[in-house]
Specification:
Blueprint lengths: L2 H5 L1 H26 L3 H32 L6 H53 L3 H13 L2 H101 L22 H4 L1
Helix pairs in contact: 2-3, 2-4, 3-4, 4-5, 4-6
InterPro entries: NPSN/SNAP25-like_N_SNARE, T_SNARE_dom
Subcellular location: Membrane
Main location: membrane
């Protein structure tokens, strides 16, 4: 008789369910090793993950039941046996978890490697025509590679990715530096344009003042010209009268012009009148 069955039927039932799950996990990982297609491997690994989750829940139930029985009068050897059994279950489950992580990484590397080959073939086949046969060959090539080869290839791809990231960081930094220099140059040009605009405003204001001053000067010059023309007419008129008077001194039309004295022969003294 199973010693756990002698302690508790419920513990024995839980242990049986856990053992069934362990057998299913063992068979599932053996089947996973034989599968070559990465998508099928991913689906199989998901099913195994669900089984491991159920197994973890049952181990927790087993541990809770053991703790509830520790104060029920069991001897020290029984409690030690139950704790050893629980630790053995946890250890076995952890081994399947480690396998799950290993296969998850391998499947990921396989998918990435296949996608990388497919993308390379797409770039080449833009000139060579359809690449369905080449893509299938690449997938088969990735599926036929050993785990170690996939690991090595994955590490190489990760190194290439890290180098590409570093190059991208350098390019980004150089772009930031160029942007900073450009921003400083634009700021300097903006300040210069502001000064030019201020100077243009000053020039425009000066031109307005100069235009107004020129208009005033023009009005003054026009007034002065009118005065000068009037004076010239007066002077010409006076000269003309003088010339006429000299040429024809007996002309009665101009004898009474103010400023011109009468002829000496026509003057008479006051005492001669008397």
């Amino acid at each position: 008789m199973d010693p756990i069955s002698a302690v508790s039927e419920e513990l024995a039932e839980i242990e049986g369910q856990i053992n069934d799950l362990f057998r299913a996990l063992s068979n599932g990982f053996q089947k996973l090793e034989k599968i070559k297609d990465a998508n099928r491997q991913s689906r199989q690994l998901q099913e195994l993950t669900d089984k491991m989750r159920d197994c973890k829940s049952l181990i927790k139930d087993f541990d809770s039941e053991v703790k509830s029985l520790e104060g029920g009068g069991n001897d020290a050897n029984t409690n030690r046996m139950l704790n050893d059994r629980r630790q053995s279950m946890v250890k076995e489950l952890n081994s399947y978890v480690a396998l799950k992580k290993k296969y998850a990484v391998l499947i990921l590397f396989k998918i990435i490697y296949s996608s990388n080959l497919a993308s390379n073939n797409k770039r080449v086949d833009l000139f060579d025509g359809p690449a369905e046969d080449n893509m299938e060959e690449n997938v088969l090539l990735a599926s036929n590679m050993s785990n170690q080869e996939l690991m090595n290839k994955g590490n190489s791809m990760m190194d290439d990715t890290d180098q590409a990231i570093e190059r991208g960081k350098k390019i980004v930094q150089e772009t930031i530096n160029v942007g900073t220099d450009t921003s400083a140059a634009l700021k300097a040009q903006t300040d210069q344009m502001s000064r030019v605009v201020n100077e243009l405003d000053s020039i425009h204001f000066s031109l307005k003042k100069a235009s107004k001053l020129v208009k005033e000067i023009g009005r003054q010059v026009a007034t002065d010209k009118c005065i000068m023309a009037f004076l010239c007419l007066i002077v010409i008129g006076v000269i003309a009268i003088i010339i006429v008077k000299i040429v024809n001194p007996n002309n009665k039309d101009i004898r009474d012009i103010p400023g011109l004295a009468p002829p000496a022969m026509n003057r008479r003294l006051l005492w001669n009148h008397y």
